[in-house]
Design goal:
Elements: H1 2-6, H2 10-22, H3 26-42, H4 47-66, E1 71-72, E2 74-80, E3 87-93, E4 103-106, E5 110-117, H5 122-131, H6 136-145, E6 153-159, E7 164-168, E8 177-181, E9 184-188, H7 195-206, H8 211-224, E10 234-240, E11 254-258, H9 264-293, H10 297-317, H11 322-334, H12 339-352, H13 357-369, H14 373-386, H15 391-406
Antiparallel strand pairs: 1-5, 2-3, 2-9, 3-10, 4-5, 5-6, 6-7, 8-9, 10-11
Helix pairs in contact: 3-4, 5-6, 7-8, 8-9, 9-10, 10-11, 11-12, 11-13, 12-13, 13-14, 14-15
Length: about 400
């Protein structure tokens, strides 16, 4: 008990923080120091005293390390999007695999970040309280009342109405603190200084549009301001949306993690761009239709604008890639995102590859979608002349001709 109190004294805490910041192995340092002492003290027949001192040093080292071995020194942002109801968390830490520890999100319920001496039970317990009708503030207060180690915790909560609550315990390592804003909270500990959370809050408020983009902007600002005093190792981005997951089977709209990397924020940004191109456009197109059905016109429009931004970026980069042009054009046409633009991409693909079956088919589909049925029939007839045995082309041509004859 005496030693436990001793390591919490201000001077000893400063030494402990210095060890944490330098990321040293305390026991290794003591081992080297003890070996030197042994050589010196052997000359004076003081072995027994030396062994006692070494044992004491290792005991203290164990307490220093064990008292905070589970600490997740980090910075994070928790936020809610009032336009479409998205909830999300972005986080970075000098900690292996921060993703399974800090961020917790449940669509239609809330988002929670638990860090410092992280208590992962705050996630499920917090969601249970939110589902019972408690606000973010009521939930947070109940969590820390139930936790005898609350002074070592840092937690940010946003509920599904945009309510915000945040807590930084007195025992969190400096610099530690938080900033609350409208629909979001930023928090961090063992940071370079207060400017980290200030810049994160400013970046989030000044960046428009999609929640994931705003969360990443905040994370980038925090890293550029100095971030975690010990350095960088892992990061995570989690955004939940009702039926926003793969093929609409779950709510996990975005769940990206960097477990161990020299530049975890930069790597997370790179992976996010890949996600947008290979999975995100389809997810956004699907949920845009859902937003329209729920009369959330602004949300639907914003999703389609983001799809067009991604499509333009891909076309600029892959302007001569026929497969990429067809894939983007197919999504724009068949998901009714921007049919005219999709048709233009299909026509460009045909210029690059005049006998590409998918490009020819897509031109016919594009003309049909914009109401130009005769042009669609001509396009499918031309495609059939190139691929006379293609049953899909024959069937689609027959369908459009029947529609045209009934009008």
């Amino acid at each position: 008990m005496f030693l436990r109190k001793y390591v919490e004294m201000p001077m000893v805490k400063s030494i402990r923080n210095a060890v944490l910041i330098c990321n040293l192995n305390v026991c290794l340092v003591i081992s080297l120091y003890s070996h030197a002492l042994l050589i010196i003290m052997q000359k004076y027949a003081m072995k027994n005293l030396l062994y006692f001192l070494i044992a004491g040093l290792f005991t203290c080292a164990g307490i220093l390390n064990a008292s905070h071995k589970e600490s997740v020194h980090t910075y994070s942002i928790v936020a809610y999007d009032p336009v479409n109801g998205d909830l999300g968390v972005a986080v970075q830490s000098k900690f292996l695999g921060v993703g399974p520890v800090v961020p917790w999100v449940e669509a239609g319920v809330g988002a929670i970040a638990t860090q410092a001496w992280a208590n992962t039970q705050y996630g499920p317990d917090g969601f249970a309280m939110l589902k019972d009708g408690k606000s973010a503030g009521e939930t947070g207060q109940q969590l820390i009342r139930n936790d005898e180690n609350a002074n070592h915790r840092q937690v940010g909560i946003v509920d599904a109405e945009g309510g915000v609550w945040v807590w930084t315990g007195d025992e969190c390592h400096d610099w530690a603190g938080h900033i609350k804003g409208e629909n979001f909270t930023v928090q961090g500990n063992l940071l370079a200084d207060e400017q980290v959370v200030r810049d994160m809050a400013d970046a989030f408020e000044e960046t428009g549009g999609d929640l994931a983009v705003r969360l990443l902007a905040a994370l980038r600002a925090g890293e550029d301001a100095g971030g975690d005093r010990r350095g960088s190792q892992s990061s995570a981005l989690m955004v939940y949306r009702k039926n926003g997951g793969y093929a609409g089977y779950n709510d996990r709209f975005i769940d990206l993690r960097v477990e161990d990397h020299d530049d975890p924020v930069g790597e997370l940004e790179r992976i996010f761009l890949l996600w947008e191109e290979f999975l995100g456009m389809q997810a956004r197109a699907r949920t845009a239709k859902m937003f329209e059905d729920d009369d959330k016109k602004d949300a639907a429009r914003r999703e389609r604008d983001r799809i067009m931004y991604i499509a333009d970026r891909m076309v600029e980069r892959d302007s001569e890639d026929v497969g990429s042009l067809i894939r983007i054009g197919w999504l724009l046409i068949n998901e009714d995102v921007h049919v005219e633009h999709g048709l233009q991409l299909a026509q460009k693909a045909v210029l690059l590859a005049p006998e590409n079956r998918d490009a020819l088919y897509l031109i016919g589909e594009g003309y049909y979608k914009i109401g130009e049925h005769m042009e669609a029939i001509e396009a499918f007839e031309y495609a059939l002349s190139k691929f006379p045995g293609d049953q899909q082309i024959k069937s689609r041509l027959r369908e459009i001709m029947e529609i045209q004859n009934t009008e």
